[in-house]
Amino acid sequence: MPQTLRVRLGDGSVIDLSREDIRSWYESGLLAGDSQVQTAGSRDWTSLAKALDIGQWRKPAAVRGVSVPVKGAARSGAAKPSPAPAARTAPRAHVPALPLGRYAAYGLATLAVAAVLLWTSGWWYVLIFGSVEARRVRAATTSERRYADDTLGLKMELPRRWSILRKEHGFFTPIASARLSLAEPSTGAFGFLAVETPARGYASLDAYLDRVLEERRRAEPSLNPLRREDAPGGARRLMATRRSGDTTYEEVATVWKDGWIYYALVVWGPAEHAAAAAEDLRQGITMQGQMAARLRQAIDAVTAEVPLLTPAAAEMLMGQSQAQTLEPVEAFRRTYLLAGRGLGALSAAEQREMGVLSTDLYSRVPSRERARLGSYLDRVRGGLATEPALDQQMSKVVKTAVLKLPAARRQRLQALFEKAIAVAVSTSFG
């Protein structure tokens, strides 16, 4: 710190000044060599000239208005010239004395405020400039405020205070399918947006949510899932928490799909900020839904020709194909193939009910076709190849029989087929 001295001013007030300030006051005539000063740690007063070396300082300007003798004054005995009339000058304007006491009071008040701010710098510096961590995060962000992928029909507008992180930000490890890493420096919230197009569709959004949770736990082993719930737009949401030191972090993972493209928005931060942040970010995402529209058309075509299938069951079947879409005849063949694989996972009561409903269905098949249908289904369930022409014929036979079932029995048969297919898809995907 610069050297300071305590100075006693002409009106008796005292002020602490640095060496530079003392010199400035001295050279401007506010202090003199005999001004009383007190050095740090001393109780004795002494003159400024004794306390400091002022020999090199610039002398104060001479006081104006001092009379000077006339040049060539008369010598002794010489005739004195007639005195010239004294020049009249205008009276000097009154210069008020400097209010040194008031200045000293202001100076002391300023020093007191500065001392308080210095003592509490832990909060005011953060308030003005942000914490060290917040400034470090802010330095790793980009200036981009939106993200768009025209191929996916996806757009994302970031809410206020959120930013896109640079790829090599180093604050967390996103999952492999992450497209964007996000941060809100002022609250310490982070997140990422992931996009995945798997070779086979997930059995359900919850199955995809399981996959996201599994990858997150690799980075955060202490992540503790609390509950799952439906979210707007047909999405599913997972709420979880974790502890880091004395801070509780809340994590919100929201997943949804557009056709066979799966999306995950994962956001975490201090418990009081995460849920609201996740909702703000989700509302900034818009999609054209072009993939979902194509899938819906394919599902409608399949369920119209294969009435054993619910839309959900038809979607699961299509998700297991490489093309992720199926012609109705192929969907019919795969219905019996996967339902046969998942039948054993049903409860005993459900298996008996499936048997009763299947018997009722066969009774509505023309007698001349029953033997052919039974032989055909045996080959399908055994994983053997079938002729496309036979697939087409048997699909029509079963469709006619299903539509003859009473509505309630048909719906129950559809529900059991959907459950058996879901088990088979989940098992094969795992």
Question: What can you see in these coordinates?
Answer:
There is one protein chain. This protein is α+β, with helices and mostly antiparallel strands. Helices cover 43% and strands 20% of the residues. It is built from 14 helices and 14 strands. It has a seven-stranded antiparallel sheet with strand order 7-8-9-13-12-11-10, with helices on both faces. A four-stranded antiparallel sheet has the order 2-1-3-4. β8 and β9 form a beta hairpin. α8 crosses α10, α9 runs parallel beside α14 and α12 packs across α13. The longest helix is centred in the last third of the chain and has 23 residues. It is rod-shaped and about 130 Å long. The two termini are 68 Å apart. About 10% of the residues have low confidence.
Query: If strands are numbered along the chain, what order do they take across the biggest sheet?
Result: 7-8-9-13-12-11-10
Unreliable parts: 63-95, 118-129
* Amino-to-carboxy terminus distance: 68 Å
Q: Report the sheet-strand fraction.
A: 15-25%
Q: What's the overall average pLDDT, rounded?
A: 83
Number of strands: 14
Major sheet attributes? 7 strands, antiparallel
Overall radius of gyration: 45 Å
User: Which bin fits the share of residues in helices?
Assistant: 40-55%
Discrete helix count: 14
Q: Write the element-wise H/E pattern from the N-terminal end onward.
A: EEHEEHHHHEEEEEHEEEEHEHHHHHHH
Overall geometry comes to rod-shaped
Structural classification: alpha+beta
